[in-house]
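Q: I have two molecules that I believe assemble together. Could you output structure tokens for the complex as a whole instead of separate predictions?
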Amino acid sequence: MTPVPPDGDLGAFAGLFGLEPVGSPAEPEPRARGLFRRLRDAVTASQAQAISPHLAGIYQARLVSDETWDDLEEALILADCGIPATVDIVGVLRDEAAAGRITSGESLGRALTDEVSRRLAPVPARIPLGDAPTVLRVVGVNGSGKTTTSGKLAHRLTALGQTVLIGAGDTVRAAAVEQLAVWADRAGVDIVRQAQGADPGAVAFDAVAAGRARGADVVIIDTAGRLQTQHNLMEELRKVHGVVGKAMAGAPHHVLLVIDSTTGQNGLSQARLFSEAVPVTGLVLTKFDGVARGGIVLAIERELGIPVTMIGVGETIADLQPFDAPAFAEAIFAPGAGGDA
Amino acid sequence: MFDALTDKLQGVFSGLRGRGKLTEADIDKAMRAIRLSLLEADVSLPVVKQLTGAIKARATGDEVMSSITPDQQVVKIVNEELTRLMGGANVSLAMAPTAPTVILMAGLQGSGKTTHTAKVARLLAAEGRSPLLVGCVVPRPAALVQLAVLGDLIGVPVHREDGATDPVALAKAGIAAAKRAGRDVVLVDTAGRLTIDAEMMGELVAIRDAVRPTSVILVVDAMTGQTAVDVAVAFHDAVQFDGVILSKLDGDARGGAALSVRAVTGKPILFVGTGEKVDALEAFHPDRMASRILGMGDVLSLIEKAQQNVAVADARRIEEKLRGGSLTLDDFLVQLRQVRKMGPIGDLMGMIPGFGKAAKMKDVQVDERRIDRIEAIISSMTLSERARPDIINGSRRRRIADGSGTTVQEVNQLLAQFKQMQKLMRRMGKGGLPSMLGA
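A: Yes, here they are, computed for all two components at once.
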């Protein structure tokens, strides 16, 4: 591996992609705490406004009463978890309480974070890099952050010593290709591009072919944003998936669905309809900072079982992180999260 | 995912119709159904509570308790309360008494700010005004290019200064340029951030104070969940925006956020964005939005679209033929083309009550390309073939298939479907049709 300065974040990325750790073996403990702190910082602002009064009330209560369960339900709804997931989680915790394992507000808080973290991480999400090149396709609705995610990902993988090539597959949005070119330039990776309005299938095919010819380790294909109800555009997504498969058997190896953390219950519809069109292998939760709650991933996990692979907590490249379920659960629901505001 | 509230309430009230009074427990159950329904549509929780309170007060009154169709009464009340909460009537964009009118656009990153800046400019240009676009989006890679491309597309000039780094100076220069060039509206696009941060708000406030806009417009993504209210409140506290544009309402988002933003900030929703194209911007109507949130369809918008696009005489002639069961393939073609003028058929179906859900199902999905093929097939027929499809024998079918670039199977399929439709129409003409229209 190329010698890269030891970097906790990069180490976590190495794990996510099944690569050897960079530099000195990353110690999982400080890394987890680093991310946790970052997430905690990120949510503090919003927690103070809406969820935290509910949670603070719950966690401070000496006893668990009917009112506690109502408050808990509201807190989960405010975090955009959706009603089915909320009802499930509250049900599990009520059973725990009935069994005498939750006796105070504090123990309820711990049980809640445990339950959320258990749901989101039945197995750690992985994006193993195997075939050369491994082809990743990034899909999602308009404005969710696909292009930025593609760019950041290229940057992180390059730092891990991988040769990356980007396919500028968003040929629809004005200036999307230019935006990605800026990212490619920053990351110092090759980009395969055509003019706006070009056939996205041709761009994808060329990107994979170029990736093979140039011996790239990873090819990242960006796509145009589309709303999941746009039947023809979803058909196009499906078609280009097939085109990529023709350029290289078995590709694309991973399809990442990018979801904006501020998304409400529509996120479930996004996950459902994108999965029907192409085999979505993982979620990327973007813009998880400030006001966002991201509870929608619980609703998606409940219905579709798609794991969250990465989370974007800010605008810099280092702010794209491998998803850490316990840290995420604690950042939103831990006793005291944001309670100091 | 979203069962229409009507369905749920019907479930709650089923079996009670005509049996006399509702009990308190029935009403409570109904309130729970309403609460869940609103939350599933992403209406903000505090607003849901406020609404259910108001609805319950009315629902326990006589108008519901003594009704023989309590579910419909409750839906009517919910609809009215929702409409009231969203401001009641449509509000239009304010123009300054002396030109230029300055409109400042604000919003989070990815909300569709730049696209909607262009959409508003296009709309104003279509109304005979002469807008100028100014992009104060310094930090975003290629954002200026996006605005320039959009400006080109809609034929509206974009003020740009390459290498400018101060958004405030850029905004001022843009307005000065508009005055010099005699442009009467200036639309200032601003940088979005991922989140509400002090830096973004500071920049926005600085621009606002420097240019004193006629209106500040906040762009909110219709797919936003419970966060929408926090975003709106934060922007309102900082820049006191005057109106809201709800973007990306063309998907299956129910846009409960819309309701919440109006309810919490008191500021009206001016427009909704309904597609990627620059002309996909519509005036906001609270009553229609209420119908959409309740999954009741939007018949009014459908009728408006029809009135704009369908020739009345043609429609009347076709209706008579429909009733008589004497519809020809030519009539069918005329009708098909008229319907298509109204927009994508999938969108139209979503406006029909009860179809919103059906349109989402696979088998009802309308593939526009299939309709293209149907048009091609009929166009390849002679007039006498269109009038009397029975004469279309094997060799004619081959000729039609070749002429339209389709296959004989597709021609057969169309003819069979048409025959089926004629039969159905004949049956409806004998009494089924009036009740269908009156429902």
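A: One point stands out. Chain A is about 50% helix and 10% strand.
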